[in-house]
Each structure stands twice: as structure tokens, then as C-alpha cells.
Amino acid sequence: MTKLKVKYGRDPNYKPQNPIFQLIAGGCSSMVDVMLMQPLDVITTRLQLQNDTIMGPDHYAGMSDAIKKIYRKEGMTAFWRGLVPVLVIDTPKRSIKFLVFDQSQQLFMFGAPWPSPPTYAFAGGLGGIVEALIQNPFEIIKITQQASRQKLPSIQVAKKIIENQGYGLHGLYRGMPTMVARNVVFNVIYFGSYWSVRDATPTCQRFEFLRNFTIACAASLLSCVASLPLDIVKTRIQGPQPVPGKVKYSGTLNTVLQICREEGWKALYKGLLPVTIRMVPGGAILLVGYEYIIKLLVSKYNK
């Protein structure tokens, strides 16, 4: 019978890994996640952008209806629309997020000999803030591409946004406060719950991957459900407005109130199914992939 070794917290002598290893591991796990999950990201964006009080031939009744209509009218490649800006930014920004998370844990030890749940939560939140600052302009471009029924090159979309709205909070950094809020909520729960539960549960080598992947899926689900309303609000603010030339969604609280008043509070959880289908395995791939790539790099190059 395999002996289980119970571990509560990391080794007191734990030190952050080589930053180069962290950047490589974060980038590689991010690329795998993006390539596999991009179709669900497109579907989620379409569902979140539409106003259910306005019906039409292009209205999506749900996830399956969106898949059918996108495939029939736009073809298979439409499911990977907006992939270029996602790959260009997600690889480095997630690498940096993991780097910030791991390196900043020493700042949030609060006198403890090793990281605790608050350590993981605060470090995750800081990583989320840094991630948002890098991500916002590319998120604007991606959402604009995914919302369009036409194929629009990333450079063309970026130029049009800059020409019409500029670089600031009305242009490429539109929705920045909401993006920061969403990322903080997501990453506090994502990193905080994963590492805390992982450190407090029994482990054995035979079932380590299954244990880690299961905990990562649960952490991804919790963070996804908690941050989805802010994600809906962010998408409405950053995406094309319902009436061209007229700004309807301009602030976090204002957008929440408008959505609840016009569509009901349930609209804040629109697209929950595709979001969870995309984020749960995707989040698990990121966390577990990051860990195993780090271990591989350490075993091979850190001798």
C-alpha cells in the first residue's frame, strides 16, 4: 500500500525558482491553453456581448446555437478569430503573472516560516494587477475581432481604435478599472485556493498528477464563478457599443445597473456554461503544466 505523506505548507527553506524557468514554464503552458480553448473563448465573447432584449437572425439562443450559427455563416476558422493578439500577449503576460506570483510571496509571509493562504491570495492578486496592465490593449483588440462577423486583421483593428478613440481610458485602455477588479478577484481565488488546498491535502507520487489536476479544476471553477459578473461588465465596456458612436456602457457600477435593469441579474452570469467549460480545464492546464515544466527545467538544467 502506498504511504501517503501529509504536507501543510511548503518547505520552510523554500526559495523562488529561477525567474527564467518561471517565464518559460508560464509561456509554454499558456500557449497550450490558448490553442486548445480559443473556440470556447470566441463563443463566450459572442454570448456576453449580445443583449437578450434585442432579437434578430444573428441572435444566439445558447452555446449550441452559437456553435451552429458561427460554423454555418463564418466557417471553422471563425472559432480561432482573434487568436493572434491572444497568443502575442497571453504568452508573455501569463509568464509574467506566474513570475510575479512566485517572486512576490516573500513580501506576504507576515512573519510565517512558509507561505500561508493569505500569502498565496495576496501574491495572486498582485500578479493579476500586473497582468491586467499588460493585457488591456490586446483584450480590446481581441474582443473587437471576436464580436465582428467579418475577418479583421489585428493591425487594422488596432489602428482604427487608436484613430477613433486614442490610447487612453476611452481607447486601448477602455475598461481598465473593471479589468483590474476582475483579474484581482479571479487570481486571489485561483492561486489562493489551489496552493492552499494543495499544501493541506495528502500526497503520494502515484496519484500526484490526478490530485493536482482535480484541485486545479476546482480552483478554476470557483474563481470563474466569482469573477464572471465582472467579466461580463468588462466585455460590455470594452466591446463594440450597441449603437455606433454612442457610449452606453462606460463604468463598472453603471454597467452593472444597466444590465440588471434591462436584462435582469441573471444576465451577469450569461455564458456561464461555455466560460466554465473553457476556464476549468484551461486553468488546470495552466497551473499543472506550469508546475511540471518547472520541475522538468530544474531537473535538467539546475544541477
TrEMBL record:
InterPro entries, A to Z: MCP_dom_sf, MCP_transmembrane, Mito_2-oxodicarb_carrier
Reactions listed under catalytic activity: glutarate(in) + 2-oxoglutarate(out) = glutarate(out) + 2-oxoglutarate(in); hexanedioate(in) + 2-oxoglutarate(out) = hexanedioate(out) + 2-oxoglutarate(in); citrate(in) + 2-oxoglutarate(out) = citrate(out) + 2-oxoglutarate(in); 2-oxoheptanedioate(in) + 2-oxoglutarate(out) = 2-oxoheptanedioate(out) + 2-oxoglutarate(in)
Gene3D superfamilies: Mitochondrial carrier domain
UniProt membrane topology term: Multi-pass membrane protein
Function field: Transports dicarboxylates across the inner membranes of mitochondria by a counter-exchange mechanism. Can transport 2-oxoadipate (2-oxohexanedioate), 2-oxoglutarate, adipate (hexanedioate), glutarate, and to a lesser extent, pimelate (heptanedioate), 2-oxopimelate (2-oxoheptanedioate), 2-aminoadipate (2-aminohexanedioate), oxaloacetate, and citrate.
Family the UniProt entry places it in: Belongs to the mitochondrial carrier (TC 2.A.29) family.
UniProt protein name: Mitochondrial 2-oxodicarboxylate carrier
Organism: Drosophila mojavensis
